[in-house]
UniProtKB/TrEMBL annotation, chain A:
This is Branched-chain amino acid transport system ATP-binding protein. It comes from Aquamicrobium aerolatum DSM 21857. Residues 219-240 are annotated as: Disordered. One of its GO terms (molecular function) is branched-chain amino acid transmembrane transporter activity. SUPFAM superfamilies: P-loop containing nucleoside triphosphate hydrolases (SSF52540). PROSITE patterns: ABC_TRANSPORTER_1 (PS00211), ABC_TRANSPORTER_2 (PS50893). Keywords: Amino-acid transport, ATP-binding, Nucleotide-binding, Transport. GO terms for biological process: L-amino acid transport. It comes from the Bacteria. InterPro entries: AAA+_ATPase, ABC_transporter-like_ATP-bd, ABC_transporter-like_CS, BCAA_Transport_ATP-bd_LivF, P-loop_NTPase.
Automatic annotation (TrEMBL), chain B:
This is Branched-chain amino acid transport system permease protein. Pfam families: ABC_tran, BCA_ABC_TP_C, BPD_transp_2. Keywords: ATP-binding, Cell membrane, Membrane, Nucleotide-binding, Transmembrane, Transmembrane helix, Transport. It is found in: Cell membrane.
From TrEMBL, chain C:
This is Branched-chain amino acid transport system permease protein. The keyword Membrane applies. GO terms for molecular function: transmembrane transporter activity. The chain crosses the membrane at residues 18-40, 60-79, 91-113, 119-138, 150-174, 194-216, 246-271, 283-309, 321-340. It comes from Aquamicrobium aerolatum DSM 21857. Belongs to the binding-protein-dependent transport system permease family. LivHM subfamily. Its main location: membrane. InterPro entries: ABC_transp_permease, BCAA_transport_permease. The keyword Transmembrane helix applies.
Length: 240, 591, 344
């Protein structure tokens, strides 16, 4: 098991008195894409936030064979990076500043190097360097959020609903970029409601329902699992 | 009010002690101290209402004392008016000045009110010191004592009874107020602005009410102070005292009326002790107690944010169930719409944010007796559509009407008043209030009694009806056994049901539910579906926004499917489920 | 009114306004980064002015002892926090920052106090003594409350203000002090006399504003502070520690406070409680700037200074009434122009 990049074991999260994650376990290999799919309120975002350290959790998280560092900042330094559902960009700052800040914990040299790479990968952002992040379109914002995340040279990228609110063509572009990132050695934990598209690019899939893992396995298998379709669209005869 | 016996005997003991104390051979400065505590308690009670209950605060309460004190000082000395006649005038002065100041600041975010009071507390202090009629910095002397018939309350131990009578009456009045319909609205302020508006509370008015009341209690304190000291000057109405009053409210526990008296006692006794012993310790005389006060304030907020009174209450737990009177008259109900008539009609509703079209010319209808599901993937515009109906967001174009009446442009409160009640995707309950009180908040618009009636308990009949209604709705949804528990104790599924009960307490024509099944366990979902069916059979119309298709399939009569802000399908669940566009929207790619 | 009086009043207003501007900027800085409404900013001004006065008189500034006390307290608090996760490097850092640093400053103050160094040296020593207090005040009072509401943080600020003001009384006594000017003398600009001290004030204010501009626009740490103000979650996600930005904002505020004190010390008699009123005038400006805008705050502060100068000439006894009363029309205007009424 030590060759795993991330191992989550029996993760519980509660908001006040209500427990929303009831002991989630998952494991991912370095260099892979793992996707977590499931309905709204299943706890997918909570899972990512807990792995990132934004919210307290109980249970074990091991990263790179070691217990994961305690604070968000230490986790960023160790190579984790979350692109949250709401993007959380610095709206009144320029694209350039947003990207530069992505490399806050890296050396100046690394930062400059990464900046070049990022602008190459997202030429659209290079054109808009001086524009304020708040004035970008939805797709551009998602690109900026990804670009900012890449600046921290992550080993494990946590993506929360990268396709949310984007037009289908842009969704395809974004997922394409995600697939490309894997080839550069970045591992990706992808939370996505666009289940079919996510399973297409992923190696492994987990179906989470009501804070528990319901199903897991190779992505290709899950994609052809008829019960998945049911989980999403409902079985008409299941209700009385 | 429900006391258990331990609390009751404690309160009775305290009251008797208070009554006989001046007759015991105690040093006179004890009585002076107690008089000061009484006066400060009045101000602190106002601050407890404002800060602890309403979530606002003020550093300028000492200035309101000043208005009360100077009003009576001028009227009694210059015009010879009896102090008892100046009492209402002093109080009116407090209210009159609080009102415009409140109007200015309550719409701003929370910290502008305290900052404003800080600045104007200083301005008032300097102003009092400049006005000739008010005796400038020397103030006004020769204020007559209070008197009844021939008895003049000259000595400390005689005015003692006057002061403490006012303190106890004010505390009871505050307690009565909090335990009423208006009080519930004030207590709901802490939960944030939008939710109370959505079930019909006028948030601006509630904030103003509590600010004015705090001003009035401070003016009362000032009036008493003037007749106790019989000479006043600007010093006790300056910003330092303003800060000290806030300290008392925080120490006692911002949220407990009796805690205010407790806080005032601690601060003033501490001040007395410090002023006596600190100078010896440090070797000079000056106001060193401010160091201790400052540190105390920081420590309490760091370690006991609920104040010290909370610890005392914990020693005497309150174990009481609220009595629901079975014969309370029923609240008026709105006439039910005939089955099948049009209730909510959305026509070409459009909402754009900047360049983004969130809702794209969507039209659909909810008719009486129907459950309609509004579904679609995340980001499809469901919540925005929902907000357009409830008035949380305004339409860019198109119309929303209810039973033929236009809803566009109305406030959420107005729309609630029309009979459209809603729940929230992220439940907005007040965790410290009981389940019953949370539900009673939903019936806010069905009661009419105001502040005065509440304080005097003249609204008990109406209050009983409101609580009975809340209890009825809790029974209806199956949460009856939890009614006296704090709402924060419930599990998520129960909280969602609680929100439905609260919405039902409005006696709505339509229920709007925002993702009621999100985060629920399978069993809870089934119970919820059963409940919604039951409500429909009782004639309730329901519009629910849902992401989870399996939940709505067997439940709704009609489905409306949105994707990218556009209506892509509409019809019976069976038809919608087979629609290729819907399948593609949910699973992605081409199905 | 004749022109000479008017120019004199404007100059007076500009001088005070420049100092209010510094305070207003510090307040906006601290609020936007940490959500703390920093009432005690004025105490740093008083501490700065009085420290300089003590040094002028060849006496040892008691603020250096106070700094040492604060440092020891923070050392102990950090030690207590480390009881679960002890590390040697953490202990070393703690000792260095909270014991060695204030001790070194203390020793420097002991050595320099009696030697009557030049004005510049005294000014720098004053800054050196006051600036770390920002760090310690943050650690002691605010860090444990990082997730509290703006309202709670505001009440805490009032507590800190009371404590610091009281400590000022203990350490400096109740007497007012006046420092020597950084340089004395008058210049003629055209036909108007301008004092050298007011040139210092203008120069220092402009230097600090330009410095802040470069810090926020050009340095990564400055951008991190802005980022924290814009989006806290976003800032944490790129690895910016809340504590780092908090400490930076408070140390900057303390530094600006010390500089303000050095500037105002020679032109006004400063008492232990003078800082509060001066600080609140900075607040009037900051509130006009909505606690968010640096340029509006700076211009508003100049306005406050000028209003104050003219009222002290025409209606001197109503000076404070008018200056603090200014807040009412400002709030009216904010209330009308704002559409948001959600708390936080």
């Amino acid at each position: 098991m030590t060759d795993m990049l991330l191992e989550v074991d029996g993760l519980h999260v509660s908001y006040g008195k209500a427990e929303v994650l009831h002991g989630i376990s998952l494991a991912m290999k370095p260099g892979s894409i793992l996707t977590v799919i499931g309905a709204n309120g299943a706890g997918k975002t909570t899972l990512l936030n807990a792995i990132m350290g934004l919210i307290p959790s109980t249970g074990q998280i091991r990263y790179n064979g070691q217990p994961i560092p305690r604070t968000v900042e230490a986790r960023v330094a160790a190579g984790l990076c979350l692109v949250p559902e709401k993007r959380e960009l610095f709206g009144t700052m320029t694209v350039e500043d947003n990207i530069e800040l992505g490399g806050f914990l890296r050396s100046k040299h690394e930062r400059e190097q990464m900046q070049e790479e990022v602008y190459q990968r997202f030429p659209r952002l290079a054109e808009r360097r001086k524009q304020l992040a708040g004035t970008l379109s939805g797709g551009e914002r998602q690109m900026l959020a990804l670009a900012r995340a890449l600046m921290s040279r992550p080993r494990l990228l946590l993506l929360d609903e990268p396709s949310l609110g984007l037009a289908p063509k842009i969704v395809a572009d974004i997922l394409q970029i995600v697939a490309e990132l894997r080839t550069t050695g970045v591992s990706i934990l992808l939370v996505e409601q666009n289940a079919r598209a996510a399973l297409e690019i992923a190696d492994e899939g987990y179906l989470v329902e009501l804070g528990e893992v319901r199903k897991s396995g190779p992505a290709a298998e899950l994609a052809n699992d008829p019960s998945l379709m049911e989980g999403y669209l409902g079985r008409q005869d299941s209700e009385d | 009010m429900n006391f258990n016996s331990k609390r009751f005997s404690l309160a009775a003991g305290a009251l008797i002690l208070l009554a006989v104390l001046p007759m015991l051979p105690v040093p006179p400065f004890w009585i002076t101290l107690l008089n000061n505590i009484g006066i400060a308690s009045l101000v602190a009670i106002g601050l407890v209402l404002l800060t602890g209950v309403g979530g606002l605060t003020s550093f300028g309460q000492a200035a309101f004392c000043g208005f009360g004190a100077y009003t009576t000082a001028v009227l009694t000395t210059a015009y010879g008016i009896s102090p008892w006649l100046t009492l209402p005038l002093s109080l009116a002065m407090g209210a009159l000045i609080a009102l415009p100041l409140g109007l200015i600041t309550v719409r701003l975010s929370g910290h502008f009110l305290p900052l404003g009071t800080l600045a104007w507390g200083i301005a008032i202090y300097y102003l009092l010191g400049q006005i000739d009629m008010l005796g400038r910095h020397d103030g006004i002397a020769g204020i007559p004592p209070l008197s009844i018939g021939d008895h003049r309350f000259m000595s400390g131990s005689s005015i003692y009874y006057v002061i403490w009578t006012f303190v106890i009456l004010t505390a009871i009045a505050a307690q009565n107020l909090l335990d009423s319909r208006v009080g519930r609205a004030i207590r709901a302020l802490r939960g944030g602005g939008q939710a109370p508006e959505a079930f019909g509370v006028n948030v601006v008015r509630a904030k103003l009410t509590v600010f004015v009341l705090a001003g009035v209690t401070a003016a009362l304190a000032g009036w008493l102070y003037a007749h106790m000291q019989r000479a006043i000057n600007p010093t006790p109405f300056g910003i330092n005292m303003g800060i000290e009053y806030l300290l008392m409210a925080v120490v006692g526990g911002a949220g407990y009326v009796w805690g205010a008296i407790f806080g005032a006692s601690i601060v003033l006794v501490l001040k007395e002790v410090l002023q006596r012993y600190l100078p010896d310790l440090i070797g000079s005389t000056a106001n060193f107690e401010m160091i201790v006060f400052g540190i105390l304030l920081v420590l309490i907020l760091q370690f006991a944010r609920d104040g010290l009174w909370a610890f005392i209450l914990r020693l005497f737990p309150l174990a009481s169930a609220r009595k629901i009177s079975a014969d309370a008259p029923l609240l008026e109900k709105r006439p039910t719409a005939p089955q099948g008539s049009s209730l909510i009609k959305v026509e070409k509703a459009r909402k754009t944010f900047g360049g983004l079209v969130a809702v794209n010319d969507v039209s659909f209808e909810v008719t009486a007796g129907q459950i309609v599901g509004l579904i679609g993937p995340n980001g499809a515009g469901k919540s925005t559509t929902f907000d357009l109906i409830t008035g949380m967001n305004s339409l860019t174009s198109g119309t929303v009407s209810f039973a033929g009446k236009q809803l566009s442009g109305r406030s959420p409160r107005d729309i609630a008043g029309q009979g459209i009640a809603r729940t929230f995707q992220h439940p907005k309950i007040l965790p410290d209030m009981t389940v019953l009180e949370n539900v009673a908040l939903g019936a806010h618009q069905r009661g009419h009694s105001g502040v005065a009636k509440s304080i005097l308990r003249l609204e008990r009949g109406e209050e009983a009806s409101l609580l009975a209604e809340a209890a009825t709705q809790l029974e209806r949804v199956g949460l009856g056994e939890f009614k006296d528990r704090p709402a924060g104790d419930l599990a998520l599924g129960q909280i969602r049901i609680l929100e439905i009960a609260r919405a039902l307490a409005l006696d709505p024509a339509v229920l709007l539910l925002d993702e009621p099944a999100a985060g629920l366990r399978l069993g809870e979902k089934k119970e919820l579906a059963t409940l919604l069916r039951k409500l429909r059979s009782e004639g309730m119309s329901i519009l629910l926004v849902e992401h989870d298709m399996s939940f709505v399939m067997g439940l709704v009569d009609h489905l409306v499917v949105l994707d990218f802000g556009t209506l892509i399908a509409e019809g019976s669940p069976a038809d919608v489920r087979k629609n290729p566009a819907v399948i593609a929207a949910y699973l992605g790619g081409v199905a | 009114m004749d022109l000479t009086i008017a120019t004199f009043l404007v100059q007076d207003g500009l001088t005070n306004g420049a100092i209010y501007a510094l305070l207003g900027l510090a307040l906006v800085l601290v609020f936007s980064v940490t959500r703390v409404i920093f009432i005690p900013q004025g105490e740093f001004v008083a501490y700065g002015a009085m420290t300089l006065s003590f040094l002028d008189a060849g006496r040892f500034p008691p603020t250096a002892s106070l700094l040492l006390c604060f440092g020891c307290l923070v050392f102990l608090l950090n030690l207590w926090d480390m009881r679960r996760e002890f590390s040697v490097s953490g202990l070393a850092r703690n000792a260095l920052l909270n014991l060695a640093l204030p001790a070194a400053i203390y020793l420097l103050a002991v050595t320099l106090a009696s030697t009557q160094p030049g004005a510049m040296v005294k000014a720098l020593l004053t800054i050196l003594i006051i600036a770390p207090m920002g760090l310690y005040v943050y650690r002691i009072a605010y860090k444990p409350l990082a997730d509290a509401s703006v309202l709670v943080l505001l009440i805490v600020s009032v507590g800190v203000h009371l404590a610091l003001m009281g400590l000022g009384l203990v350490f400096f006594g109740a007497e007012g002090l006046r420092a020597k000017a950084l340089s004395s003398g008058m210049f003629m600009v055209g036909s108007f006399p301008v004092s050298a001290q007011s040139l210092w004030i203008y120069g220092a204010t402009i230097a600090i504003i330009v410095g802040l501009y470069f810090f926020f626009e050009k340095t990564l740490l400055g951008k991190a502070l802005r980022a924290t103000a814009v989006n806290r979650v976003g800032a944490r996600l790129v690895g910016v520690r809340t504590q780092l930005t908090g400490v930076t904002a408070f140390v900057l505020a303390a530094t600006i406070g010390a500089v303000s004190g050095i500037l105002i010390g020679p032109i006004a008699t400063v008492y232990y409680d003078t800082g509060f009123l001066i600080g609140l005038k900075g607040f009037v400006a900051a509130i006009i700037g909505g606690l968010a805008s640096f340029p509006v705050t700076a211009f508003a502060a100049i306005g406050v200074g000028i209003v104050e100068a003219f009222t002290s000439f025409y209606a001197s006894s109503y000076k404070e009434v008018i200056v603090f009363g200014l807040i009412i029309p400002v709030l009216v205007w904010l209330s009308i122009s704002t559409t948001v009424h959600e708390d936080e």
